[in-house]
Amino acid sequence: MPRLRPSIFFVSGPSASATASRPCLHSLTLSSSRRSISTARHPPFAVLETCPEPTCPCRSAPKLDLEIDRKQNLNGSMSPYAQHLIVSTGQSDWTSRIEDEHDNGTSWGQVVGDFKSLLGRHGEFHDPFNNILINTSSFTPSSEPEPRHSRDLVEGVDALIFPAFRRFRHLAPLARGREATTKSTVLTSPAGAGSGGLKDFVRGYLLPEPDRLHPIYKDIPEHERAAKIRDATAASNFHSWPIVNPTILICSHHQRDSRCGTLGPLLHEEFRRYINQRKPDEQGRKLVTPQSPGNFIASENDGPTGSEPGVQGSILESLGQSLIDTTLSSFSNTNASATSSMQAHVNVGMISHVGGHKWAGNVIVYIPPTFTTFHGTTSNHQHPSSDMSHASGVPPPHPLRGMGIWYGRVEPRHIEGIIEQTVMSGKVIGELFRGGINAYGEILRL
């Protein structure tokens, strides 16, 4: 297994190594008949044109019923979105349209259908310029029992939001009615204020921040504008947990397309195998996956921190002193003896259709804003802030912190490269790159 590699930060100018990285040039606007979402001018990451060959044995790609499109350039093939909402279901395949799960008898099926109804075309919160990507996942809902304040409390649903990097529990379906969602509020709000239902959740976490509302709405009446932007009061009805561990999502939606349905579970198994067999670095720090394939570990403590309205818009602005204070929280010191190692969990899950089945396997890598690079030596292209990190004994911030990186045409032979180059070193693999999103909701292109 390979040793941990030092990170290489993108440096523009003649001093940057042409063989290791190249500038990432982005257009300033994104042409789309459906929406217009800004793109980052100069995303701070290095690019490897091709994925390095694996240094350890890996499984071969399976034979597929349908062919993979290997001719089209993947760059720009990711549909723009503002936030990614993921509902935990505990299963790896779903009906072709996940909104059709609404009547499957489960709480998560109702919640998915309700979110689609609220945010989809003709929905109460539909905004073509604020696209919310909604997926189901193989992560199992929390097994932690809910507080019991009433015999009539309903079973809730777990959800994740990226790039806000928040985890939520006990969301109740709209179909339960006003009375049920009010009782559910006791589970999510310390003060028990408001309804705590899905509409409040949309208002509090999925609508755009005031400064991110599309300019087309600049002349609408103030009350209409207020209905289109995020409401901190609604957000206060919910507790959330910060996600400080990397998350890898793989499309496995067989009932939508057999290519992802075949490749997805294989990639899921291989990612977990590679991560868990990977050797610790020179300082004894190691990547691990949750013990159960369906488990999701938001942080090593995985405890509530209360709601933080507006975290998406300020996520990078808070990476100064707070990074020094909290960055090591992404590692867990088992500390039972001198031989105990530091661990960073990597969540690996399967999700429903994200678009582009002809480019299966589709993989999304989300790097938390507080995640750091493992390092042994200082790179010649180290970001200046990393020197301070070394001097203070704090690992340098990750070049892809707060970002989501989309890859397509991923095979088992690419897994080592994705872990070593993207998760560990903060470099994007150009031949696989479909697009990405940063902490501000800006779309990333090459």
Automatic annotation (TrEMBL):
Give the Pfam families listed for this entry: Suc_Fer-like
Gene3D superfamilies in alphabetical order: Glutaredoxin
The family this protein is said to belong to:
Belongs to the AIM32 family.
Query: In its UniProt entry, what is this protein called?
Result: Altered inheritance of mitochondria protein 32
- What are the top taxonomic ranks of the organism? Eukaryota, Fungi, Dikarya, Ascomycota, Pezizomycotina
